[in-house]
From TrEMBL:
<dbReference type="InterPro" id="IPR028939">
    <property type="entry name" value="P5C_Rdtase_cat_N"/>
</dbReference>
<dbReference type="InterPro" id="IPR036291">
    <property type="entry name" value="NAD(P)-bd_dom_sf"/>
</dbReference>
<dbReference type="InterPro" id="IPR000304">
    <property type="entry name" value="Pyrroline-COOH_reductase"/>
</dbReference>
<keyword id="KW-0028">Amino-acid biosynthesis</keyword>
<comment type="pathway">
    <text>Amino-acid biosynthesis; L-proline biosynthesis; L-proline from L-glutamate 5-semialdehyde: step 1/1.</text>
</comment>
<keyword id="KW-0560">Oxidoreductase</keyword>
<keyword id="KW-0963">Cytoplasm</keyword>
<feature type="binding site">
    <location>
        <begin position="6"/>
        <end position="11"/>
    </location>
    <ligand>
        <name>NADP(+)</name>
    </ligand>
</feature>
<dbReference type="GO" id="GO:0055129">
    <property type="term" value="P:L-proline biosynthetic process"/>
</dbReference>
<protein>
    <recommendedName>
        <fullName>Pyrroline-5-carboxylate reductase</fullName>
        <ecNumber>1.5.1.2</ecNumber>
    </recommendedName>
</protein>
<keyword id="KW-0521">NADP</keyword>
<dbReference type="InterPro" id="IPR008927">
    <property type="entry name" value="6-PGluconate_DH-like_C_sf"/>
</dbReference>
<comment type="function">
    <text>Catalyzes the reduction of 1-pyrroline-5-carboxylate (PCA) to L-proline.</text>
</comment>
<feature type="domain" description="Pyrroline-5-carboxylate reductase dimerisation">
    <location>
        <begin position="161"/>
        <end position="263"/>
    </location>
</feature>
<dbReference type="InterPro" id="IPR029036">
    <property type="entry name" value="P5CR_dimer"/>
</dbReference>
<feature type="domain" description="Pyrroline-5-carboxylate reductase catalytic N-terminal">
    <location>
        <begin position="3"/>
        <end position="98"/>
    </location>
</feature>
<dbReference type="Pfam" id="PF03807">
    <property type="entry name" value="F420_oxidored"/>
</dbReference>
């Protein structure tokens, strides 16, 4: 299988790294095109043994999967540049946040199989939580191929496209919410007099331990929380303060706001692009 990336930023590198590490394809079966920075390709060549896509016409003969990994603002130009080179049987994948399947279809000839994906930045270490949606032209074989590709960077779930705004609000942006908690815990550690380096390690391990417990124990988060909370003990005193500050409600509102913004951005983008 040959894969071509249009755009070689952080998301492309995360995917390249995962795909090679999981031996889905070798480095020399990946070609990459990047607009702004020639040095970036050299860097990726040295690190992963990928090849440079020297001309877009190479897409016609040497590619099974084209992955669009450019920012949403650059997607229209990228689609316009590749549309005449896409061949029957090739699969087009987009990781651009908020860019709909119908918008991508509207820029291409008929019946191109398209996968729209929402990964997250933990893809860098093979731990993304990714959701993917397909257009009508995607065959079973393409679906398997897409699942294989995204499974190389973490957990992958197939959803209907109308769920992708919610996925973006939950797991696309999700790593930032957890980093926000880590920031707060580090600041708290400082204020209660813990040594900075020790506190950092305790925070990280506490997050990893809790995440692993959620994954492996099979218990609901509420039960795990209750198991930490002795009556009249320290956790009860801490959780009481979180409840006084309505922290749970704040997180619920946070995910809802991010989900709403994903839909707003998509609409705004499509209105601007159709002018
Ligand atoms: N960073 C995140 O948390 C997430 C990002 N995404 C999506 O992934 C996509 C890529 O994001 P990043 O890798 O962070 O962006 P990035 O800015 O690091 O990389 C994009 C690269 O594409 C290049 N480029 C732009 N237009 C091009 C064109 N027409 N032809 C060739 N190269 C072109 C740019 O020069 C740049 O190097 C975005 O659409 C974003 O919405 C999706 C999920 C999470
Ligand atoms: O904040 C954003 O718009 C992007 C989409 C998902 C994560 N980051």
């Amino acid at each position: 299988m040959n894969i071509s990336f249009i755009g070689a930023g952080s998301m492309a590198e995360a995917m390249i790294s995962g795909i090679i590490e999981k031996k889905i394809v070798a480095g020399n079966e990946i070609t990459v095109l990047n607009r702004s920075n020639g040095h970036r390709i050299t860097q990726l060549q040295e690190k992963y043994g990928i090849k440079k896509l020297t001309s877009l016409s190479e897409l016609e003969k040497h590619t099974d999967v084209i992955i669009l990994a450019v920012k949403p603002k650059d997607i229209l130009t990228a689609l316009q540049s590749i549309q005449s080179y896409i061949q029957q049987g090739q699969l087009l994948v987009s990781v651009a946040a908020g860019i709909s399947l119908s918008f991508i279809e509207s820029q291409l000839h008929n019946d191109v199989p398209i996968v729209r994906a929402m990964p997250n930045t933990s893809a860098m270490i093979g731990k993304s939580a990714t959701a993917i949606a397909f257009n009508q032209s995607v065959s079973d074989a393409h679906q398997k191929m897409a699942l294989k590709l995204f499974s190389a960077i973490g957990l992958t779930k197939v959803v209907e496209e109308n769920q992708l705004d919610a996925v973006t609000g939950l797991s696309g942006s999700g790593p930032a919410y957890i980093y926000y908690i880590a920031e707060a815990l580090e600041q708290a550690a400082n204020e209660i007099g813990l040594e900075e380096q020790i506190a950092k390690q305790l925070v990280i391990q506490t997050l990893i331990g809790a995440a692993e417990m959620l994954k492996h124990s099979g218990e609901a988060p509420e039960n795990l929380r209750k198991a930490v909370t002795s009556p009249g003990g320290t956790t009860e005193a801490g959780i009481k303060v979180l409840e006084q500050h309505s922290v749970k409600e704040a997180f619920i509102d946070c995910v809802k706001a991010a989900t709403k913004q994903s839909a707003v951005l998509a609409q705004t983008f499509e209105q601007v692009s159709s002018k």
